[in-house]
Specification:
The complex is a heterodimer of chains A (about 250) and B (about 425). Helix content of chain A is about 35%, strand content about 30%. Chain A is of the alpha/beta class and about 250 residues long. Chain A starts with a strand and ends in a 5-residue tail after the last helix. In chain B, strands 1, 4, 5, 7, 9, 11, 13, 15, 17 and 19 form a ten-stranded mixed β-sheet that branches. Chain B has a ten-stranded mixed β-sheet with strand order 3-2-6-8-10-12-14-16-18-20, with no helix packed on it. In chain B, helix 2 packs antiparallel against helix 6, helix 4 packs across helix 5 and helix 7 packs across helix 8. Classes of the chains: A alpha/beta (about 250), B alpha/beta (about 425).
């Protein structure tokens, strides 16, 4: 599904990604953990196509295609979804429109006709109910005046509507209370499928209690330092990150 | 010296037009205005409020009055009103007058009104054009050929649409017209003035509207400019408000080579409320220069000014707003919010809110920001698969949302949105969005 080889990237002239290697197979859930400033968010933003980040080396193959050759909008239509760490507020563009436009963009790329208005509304209402969201969300501006938790739920809602092949969730768990975390986890779990992959970027083990990863990676200093199964997450929770950075990697 | 190189050619031609005019019953006030106009001359960048708009090219062109004409052009706002009134080259079309089946609404030509009551009309017409920045209104007072006098005596439910257009086959035609609107105590109306400008000729349009709201009156007024790329338009709008009156004013600049739109508002008695919204769109090589001046002359008066400016191509958009809170006006409140969005590296937006407070116990705020499309917003939309042009258009549209949603006449709003969309890239997408 996703194969990253020796990916390097600069942000504002600073080298942030220093040779990332990662392979995610279809049906897998991976967790990327790591200390602040290690480059985790940069990695997912680069994968989603953020233009002001400069790629200086490496390659990324996504579902058989050269990901880095595609502009951001094409990556999304090809089935990549980024759940933002800080979803931006866009007053004046309403949620329903954004969802519909995004869904239609994807359908168009797949050679499908635009979604029927009635069909869209019933789809969206069902998904919102599943996420415990009020219907008034639809007519509000994108993330406008949403609490931190509402913004994260909205990201998951978009993901459920778009049904991506690969979902990159950037600290979707941060700032959530335990109930919201459960709802978000429920959303993520509902999307687990044999033909879909999910990459969770997180600081804490907590989310992984609800969404069980197949693989856990420790990200530090712009690369993956160590990979393992879910027990690695528990070890990190107990020991922190320093033992890895001090070169005592087994 | 040839006319083309005569830097005062315009001024001389206006003076010649003035001498050629037959005297009417307000000759004294016209003469006074012309004398003052000639003494001041055309505005130059040395005049504070004309710093950004250079009229040198215009000053060297002679102008002649546009002849009476008829027009087959229609306003895209015509859907809001069963029978719009057309002013072609400043003259009302005769069929449009005396129309109104509504007893609360009476409309006559300005000439007819002047002939009936020259003394009070002369005083009324003179109130606009005293300030240095209102020089074109002075010239307008001297030279307007005709216009309308609208009286609103009660609640008029249907919007009144006045369509201004210039029809001429010459490149030196000038149109001077004036509209007076008197809204009686407690009366309510919506008045829409649509300026279509010239049609393919280098036309100068110099219009003035005076709107007076008696105590408790309520008015929503629109002036919409959609002139072609050869139209130069000067527009002066004066609004005077008595106690507890409410005015919502929309200035929508979508067209014209050069548009200078002045708004001069005066809140004369307690409880008067004024909201003005300016939607200023610059593209191509156009220049839009909007100057608002609001005077709080009584206590418990409120004004809010909201401006949204867009500039693409090599266009330039200027928004100057000034609020003066006079001494002894306790409880006055004013707010000025101006936001600009630059759509090209060669476009320019100058926004300058000014505030002069001579009273205590007042609440005044102002803010102005100008920038480009937010890259984080753009990336968010792209990351959802929306194509770039569409995402940009959507963000532009969202930027104007506050202003459009303030329009309470759905038909007017839809028509203005449609015209606005025509000026933006990705028109089809935006239509789907609505």
């Amino acid at each position: 599904m996703l194969k990253i080889s020796q990916l390097r990237a600069n942000v504002a002239g600073r080298n942030i990604l220093k040779g990332v290697d990662l392979e995610v197979h279809a049906g897998e859930v991976h967790a990327i953990m790591g200390p602040n400033g290690s480059g985790k968010s940069t990695l997912v933003q680069v994968l989603a196509g953020r233009e002001d980040y400069e790629i200086t080396g490496g390659s990324v193959v996504f579902d058989g295609a050269d990901l880095l050759a595609m502009p951001a909008e094409q990556r999304a239509r090809h089935g990549l979804f980024l759940g933002f760490q800080y979803p931006v507020e866009i007053p004046g563009v309403n949620n329903a429109y954004l969802l519909k436009a995004a869904l239609n963009a994807k359908r168009k790329a797949a050679g499908l006709p635009e979604v029927d208005a009635y069909e869209f509304l019933s789809l969206i209402k069902a998904k919102m109910k599943f996420m415990g969201m009020d219907e008034s969300f639809l007519s509000r501006g994108v993330n406008e005046g949403f609490s931190g938790g509402e913004k994260k739920r909205n990201e998951i809602l978009q993901m459920l509507v778009l049904e991506p092949k690969l979902a990159l969730l950037d600290e979707t768990d941060s700032g959530l209370d335990i109930d919201a975390l459960k709802v978000v986890a429920k959303g993520v779990n509902s999307l687990r499928a044999a033909d879909r992959s999910i990459v969770l970027v997180t600081h804490y083990q907590r989310l992984l209690d609800y969404v069980e990863p197949d693989r856990v990676h420790v990200f530090a200093d712009g690369r993956i330092l160590k990979s393992g199964d879910k027990s690695l997450a528990l070890e990190l929770e107990a020991r922190g990150y320093d033992w890895l950075r001090e070169g005592r990697v087994a | 010296m040839s006319a083309a190189r005569d830097k005062d050619a315009a001024l001389r031609s206006f003076e010649a037009a003035w001498h050629a005019r037959p005297e009417d019953r307000i000759a004294a006030t016209r003469a006074d205005a012309m004398r003052r106009f000639l003494a001041l001359g055309l505005p130059s960048p040395r005049d504070e409020s004309w710093r950004h708009t250079n009229l040198r090219a215009l000053a060297s062109r002679p102008f002649a009055d546009a002849e009476p004409a008829s027009s087959t052009r229609t306003s895209w706002l015509a859907g809001v009103c069963a029978d719009p009134i057309a002013l072609v080259n400043g003259r009302p079309s005769p069929t449009a007058l005396g129309r109104t089946g509504d007893p609360a609404l009476s409309i006559e030509t300005l000439r007819a009104s002047i002939d009936r009551d020259p003394a009070s009309l002369a005083a009324r017409l003179a109130s606009i054009g005293d300030a240095e920045s209102e020089r074109w209104a002075l010239l307008n007072r001297a030279l307007f050929v005709d216009g309308l006098h609208v009286r609103i005596a009660g609640r008029v439910a249907a919007p009144l649409l006045i369509v201004h257009c210039a029809e001429t086959s010459r490149d030196d035609a000038a149109v001077h017209s004036r509209v007076l609107v008197d809204v009686a105590a407690g009366a309510e109306a919506t008045i829409i003035e649509h300026h279509l400008g010239g049609s393919g000729r280098a036309t100068l349009v110099n219009h003035a509207t005076q709107l007076h709201l008696a105590p408790g009156a309520s008015v929503e007024h629109y002036r919409v400019f959609s002139g072609d790329a050869r139209t130069t338009q000067f527009d002066a709008l004066e609004i005077t408000q008595a106690a507890d009156s409410r005015c919502r004013q929309f200035t929508v600049a979508l067209g014209g080579a050069l548009l200078r739109a002045n708004l001069s508002g005066r809140l004369d008695a307690p409880g008067a409320e004024h909201d003005s919204y300016s939607l200023l769109v610059g593209h191509g090589a156009r220049q839009v220069d909007c100057v608002n001046a609001i005077v709080h002359a009584a206590s418990r008066t409120t004004s809010r000014q909201t401006a949204r400016a867009l500039a693409a191509g090599t266009s330039r958009v200027i928004f100057n707003s000034r609020v003066l809170v006079e001494a002894g006006t306790a409880g006055a409140a004013s707010n000025q919010s101006s936001r600009g969005l630059l759509l090209s590296p060669t476009a320019e937006i100058d926004a300058r809110p000014q505030l002069e407070i001579l009273a205590d116990d007042v609440k005044c705020a102002h803010g102005a920001t100008t920038g480009r499309l937010d890259p984080n917003m753009l990336f968010y939309l792209l990351a959802r698969g929306i194509d770039r042009a569409a995402a940009q258009t959507l963000l532009i549209y969202a930027f104007l949302d506050d202003l459009l949603t303030g329009m309470s006449i759905p038909g007017a709003r839809r028509a203005i949105e449609e015209a606005l969309i025509e000026e933006l890239p990705g028109a089809d997408l935006l239509r789907a969005y609505r």
